[in-house]
Design goal:
The chain is α/β, with parallel strands linked by helices. 44% of the residues lie in helices and 17% in strands. It has 15 helices and 15 strands. The longest helix has 47 residues. It is elongated, with a radius of gyration of 38 Å. The strands form three sheets. It has a six-stranded antiparallel beta sheet with strand order 3-2-1-4-5-6. Strands 9-8-7-10-14 form a five-stranded mixed beta sheet, sandwiched between helices. Strands 11-15-12-13 form a four-stranded mixed beta sheet. Among the domains are: 108 residues, no CATH class; 246 residues, Spore Coat Polysaccharide Biosynthesis Protein SpsA, Chain A (Alpha-Beta Complex). One of its GO terms (molecular function) is glucuronylgalactosylproteoglycan 4-beta-N-acetylgalactosaminyltransferase activity.
Amino acid sequence: MMLRRGFILFLPRVVGLLVVACCSMSIVYMLACTPKGDNQQLALPRVHSPTVKEGYEAILQEREEQHRNYITSLKKQIAQLKAELQGRTEQLKNMQNQYPDPLDIHLDHSKPEKAQANLLAFLRSQVDKAEVHSGVKLSTEYAAVPFESFTLQKVYQLETGLTRHPEEKPVRKDKRDELIEVIELAVGSLNKPDGVSKAKPRVYTASDFVEGIYRTEKNKGTLYELTFKGDAKHQFKKIVLFRPFGPVMKVKNENVNMADTLINVIVPLAKRASKFQQFMQNFREMGIQQDGRIHLTVVYFGKEQINEVKSILENTSKSANFKNFTFIQLNEEFSRGKGLDVGARFWKGNNVVLFFCDVDIYFTAEFLNSCRLNTQPGKKVFYPVLFSQYNPSIIYGHHDSIPSLEQQLIIKKETGFWRDFGFGMTCQYRSDFINIGGFDLDIKGWGGEDVHLYRKYLHSNLMVIRTPVRGLFHLWHEKQCLDELTPEQYKMCMQSKAMNEGSHGQLGMLVFKQEIETHLHRQKLSSKKT
C-alpha cells in the first residue's frame, strides 16, 4: 500500500515537470520572435537603394525560415517528453502490479508462485525502509531506537521492568530461540565457501562469537550485528542480519456475545472487616450497578470478625437487591490457595468464568469485560498485570490532605508500578481450573500458590494471556511478614513490601531527608544575612 501511494505521489511530479518544460519553451519562443532593440537591428538596405525591395524580402524569408526550424525543434522536444511520460506511466503500472497491497498477498491461492514473489519483494523492501544501510533524521533524542547487546550467555537490556534485570540469561523461550537461531545462521554464513580463495577455509563455531547487538523497529523488523573472532589478534568478522516483518494479515473476524457470561468473583478472607467494607463498596458500584452479570463467593477462615463480615454482605444484599453471593466458612488456618480452590469447586451451576480476587483489589466494569474477552474454555486463560499503588502518605506527604481513593487511581510512575511479578489475580473458566488440577493445597500462608497454578497453565496447551490492564488496581496496605513463613516465603514478602512503599526517587528523598533539611536551613540563614 505504501509503495502504491508513493507511485501515485510521484506521477503528478512527472506531469508538473512536463508543464514547466512546455512553459519554458513557450517563453523562449516569444523571446525569439520579439523584434531586437535599436542597437541590435540588422543592417537594412538604404531606402533609396535600388535593391530595397529584394533586401527586405530576403530578410523576411530568412526570419521565416528560422522560426519554422525553431517550431519544428519544439515539436520534436514535446514529442520526446510525451513519449517519456508514457513510458514512465507504463513503468508505474508495472510496478503497481508487481507490488500489490500487503493485505492481499495471501489471498491469491490460484497463483502461489506470484504470491511468493510478491511476498519476497515486500520483505526485501522492508530492509530498504529500515535503518540498516544508513541513518534517518530524528526529531528528538527520545525518538532513537536503542540497541540491546548479548553474548552467548547473557543479554544486556534497557527495558528491564521489575522482574527483569539489566543483565540476565534469556529465560523467555522466544528470545532464547531467536538469539540461538541468529548465531547459528551467522556461523553458517561464515562457513559458506566463497568460491574465490583456494586456501582451506577456516571453520567457525559458536565459540568464536564475541558479542552482538540488536534492535527492533516494530513495523519493519529486527536488525542484528554480530562480531566474531578473526584470523589474527586484532581482526574480526562482522555479520549483519535482518529479520523483516511480513505484511499484516487478517486471521479472524468474529462477533463475540458476552451478554450472558457470568463472572464468579472468589475472595478468600480472614478478619480484615474494614478492608472488606471498602471492597464491597467497589463491588457494588462496578459489579452490581454497572456490570450486573456477576456472582460473589467469600471463603472465610476462622470466626474472628465473622459477624462484621456477614453484616456487610447482608446490608449490600438488601440495599442493592443483590442475591448472587455465597458465603463459605472454614474453621482452619488461612490459606489463600485453599480458599480459592474451595470457592471454585463449590460452584454447582453451568461453566462460569472465575475471577480470583483479594479484598485489597479495586476493579472497574471495563476490567470485567476484559476478563470475559480474554478467557475461552479449553483455549485461553487471562493473567492481567495490575497497577500497584504506592503508599499514599509518601506520595502525597507534601500535600495538605490525601485525595479520595478514586482520585488516587492514576497510572503514573509517581503513583505506582505494574506488578509484573504477581500472578494472584486471574480469570479462567471453571472447567479449565478443574482440569488443570487446581491449587497446590500443601502451601500454607502467604505466597507461592499463585505461581504454582500459573506454571501449570504454562505447561498445558492453553494460551496464557498476560498483559497490563488499566482497570485493575492493588490498593496500598501495610504488609506484615509473619515469622512462621518459610525463608523463601519471608524473602518474597519482604521484597514485595519494599516495592510497595514508593518509587526510587521518593524513597531516596526519605533517605536523604536530613541532608535536604540541612540545606534548606542553610539557605534560610543565608537569605537572612543578605
